[in-house]
Queue: 2 jobs
Job 1
Amino acid sequence: LEKDMNKIWHKSYDPGVPTEVDLNEYSSVNAIIEQGFKKFSDRPAFHNMGTTLTYAEIDLLSRKFASYLQNNLHLQKGDRVAIMMPNILQYPIALFGILRAGLIAVNVNPLYTPRELEHQLKDSGSKAIVIFANSGHTLEKIIASTPVKHVILTEIGDMLKFPKNYIVNFVIKNVKKMVPPFTIPNALSFKECLAKGEADKFKHVTVTKDDIAFLQYTGGTTGVAKGAVLSHKNIVANMLQARAWIKNLIVDGQEIIITPLPLYHIFSLTANCFIFNSVGALNVLITNPRDIPGFVKEMSKWKFTAITGVNTLFNGLLNNEEFRKLDFSSLKVALGGGMAVQKSVAERWKQVTNRPLIEAYGLTETSPAACINPMTLKDYNGLIGLPI
C-alpha cells in the first residue's frame, strides 16, 4: 500500500499546491462568509427551484435574521440554535444569520424520528429551532421535554419568487399531502422574522477561532448520535486545506456547483457551502435528490463545473438515460465521499462524463476531509487518497 501511495503521489504531485495553509487567513467561519459577501456581492450565490439569490441578497437577509435573533429573541453569544430543513434557500440565510449572531449552529436531519430529535435538542441545549413545516409534526410530539423556547417555521417555497412560492407551498401541503397537521403554540414565521429583523440594528459579534461554530451530530449506529464540537478553527482549517487541494482547478466567481447532498451534513456543509462560498461560486441546491428525473432536469439547465455526492447517488444518475445526455464539457470536479465509491460506478462515470470520479475520506470529527485523492488523477484507483 505504501508503494502504491508513493507511486500515486509522485505521479500526481502538483508543485503549485502549497504544503501548508495559513490559518490566519480567516479569523473565523464568519470571516469567510463576509469576505464572500463583499468580494462577490453581485454574483449569484444560491439557486433553488427557479429562484437565485446573489451574495448581496444573502448578506442582507442573513443580517436581518441575525438581528432578529439578537434583538427580538434576545439570544446571546454561544446559545445553540437548531436548523432542521433540506436544501432550500432558507438554509444558508438561517445558517449565516446564526453564525453572524455569534450563536452555535446545531444541524438536524429532517428525517429524524421524535426520539432522535428529542435527544439532539436536549443534548445540545438548543434554545431555538428553525424548522420546515414538513417536520413540524415531529417537533410537536417532543418539544415540551426539550429546552427549545423559540420555534421558527418555514414552508419549502417561502423564499421563491411570486407566484411560484404560493404554488409550491400549496401543492406540497394540499396536493402531495407532505405536511402532516401539527400545532405548535407561539411558533414564529421565518418570513416574518426576516421582515421584522432590522439589518441596521445587527450587532457585530467578535468570534474567535476557538469559539464553537457547530455541534455536529454523528453516528447513532452504536447508540444515540453524538455531538461533535467543531470550532471555527476546525472548519476554517479544513476549508483551507481542501481549497488548496483543488485550487488549480477553480476560478474565483466562475464556478457552478451542484449540491444534492444536504447542507446539514458535514461533507456538503464544508465542501459545497464554505469552500465554494469563499471562491464566489453558485450553489445549485437540489431539495430532493431522490427524484432523479427532476434532479437531472435541473442539472440540464446549468454548465456546472463541480458536483459532490455519494456512491448511491452517482449510480442513480448513471442509470438515468437523460443524465447520460447532459453536457459535461464544463465539469472539473466530481467528488465522492460519505461511503466507498464502487469501481464499477467510477468507471461508468468516467465513460459517461469523460471526467474521473475522485474519492475522498473524512468524518464529522475532522470537519470532514481527512484524505483526498489528487485532482490530477485520471482514473479510479480504489484508494481513499492522500492525507490533507
Note: Residues 55-71 form the longest helix (17 residues).
Job 2
Amino acid sequence: DEDVSVNFRNRIKPFMLRRMKNDVLNELPEKIENTMFAELTHDQKNMYSSYLALAKDQTIRLLGEGGQGKMRILTLLMRLRQICCHPTLFDENYDKDSGKLELLIELVTNATDAGHRILVFSQFTSMLEIIQDRLKEEGIPCFYLNGQTPSYERAELADRFNGGERDVFLISLKAGGVGLNLTGADMVIHYDPWWNPAVMDQASDRAYRIGQTKAVQVIRLASKGTIEEKILKLQENKRNLADDIVRVNTETFKDLSNEEILSLFS
C-alpha cells in the first residue's frame, strides 16, 4: 500500500540514483504514446464468449493448486489472447475476419501513404505471418524477423530497413525486443499487449533511441471489452507502482494475486 511504498522508497534513497532516458538525453525527439481499441467481429465475439466461460470455470479450480495451477491458467489466458489477435491462432479452421487485424491494416496503409515507416511487434510469430500475408495482398512489402532469424541476417535486415528499403518491419517481441537499432522507423505498433510493460518499452526503444531524428509514435492495439483491455489496465497499475520506487524489470504474470487473475475473466 502507499505507506509501504513510501517507506521502501525512503530506505533505498541513500543508495540509488535514478535517471530516466528523457532526463539525460535531451536531444531525443518527442515520443507520443496512445492506445487504440478494435471491436471484435461477430464471429470473434461468439468464440471469445464461449471460451471465456470455460476458461473461468477451469481457473477457479486451478487457483488452489499454487504455482503449477498458475502456469495452466496462463495457457487458458493465452488462448483468449489468441482469439483477440485472430481466431485462426486458436482454431485453424476459422476462415473469417479479425477486428484487430482490419484495424492494423487500416493503420499501416494510412501511415505508409503519409510517409511513415513502421515497426510491428507481436508475441505470436504465427500472427506476424498472417499480417505478412495481408500486407502482401495490400501491396505493402515488409521485412520479418523472429527467433529463427540468424544473427548475421538480423543485422543485415536492420541495415536495409534503416537504409530506406521497405516501410514495414514485422518483429517477434521476444526475438527482436532488444539488441536492434531501428531508428529508420518513426512509428511502433504493439499488436498485442504483454504482461510486462518493460518488455514492450524495450521493444519501442528499437526506434526511440540515440540517432532518432523524428518524433516517434507508439501505438498499443487491444480488443475492446476483452482480456487485452484488462492487461493494459494491470500494466498501468504495475507501471505506476514501479515508477514510484524503481524501474520495473521483473513484473510478470506470476506476480499477480488470485484476485487480479480472476478480474481478467470479469
Note: The chain has eleven helices and six strands.
